[in-house]
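Action item from last meeting closed. Structure (91 res):
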């Protein structure tokens, strides 16, 4: 079973468990789209009751975060692992 399948299932479960108006942070240590952006866009497409927040707004002190709404950190740019962050609000 691919890891991305499990990641999708975990994110769906988290979105369904958070109260309306609540926010789920989806974070991985992977820069690979199959484990980051694709997981989030697939879940948002399947689950009509969520919106994507611009995660950059919650990290104002970090420069070079790109176009958003997701955050992808890089070792050579941010001094951290290749962390990915997406914020989903349940409607």
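Sequence:
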């Amino acid at each position: 079973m691919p890891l991305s399948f499990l990641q999708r299932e975990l994110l769906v479960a988290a979105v369904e468990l958070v109260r309306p108006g609540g926010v789920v942070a989806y974070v991985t240590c992977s820069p690979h789209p199959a484990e980051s952006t694709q997981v989030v866009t697939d879940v948002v497409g399947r689950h009509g009751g969520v919106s994507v927040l611009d995660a950059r707004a919650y990290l104002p002190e970090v420069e070079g975060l790109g176009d958003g709404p997701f955050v992808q950190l890089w070792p050579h740019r941010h001094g951290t692992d290749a962390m990915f962050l997406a914020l989903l609000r349940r409607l």
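Note appended to the action item: Strands lie at 23-28, 50-53, 71-72, 84-90.
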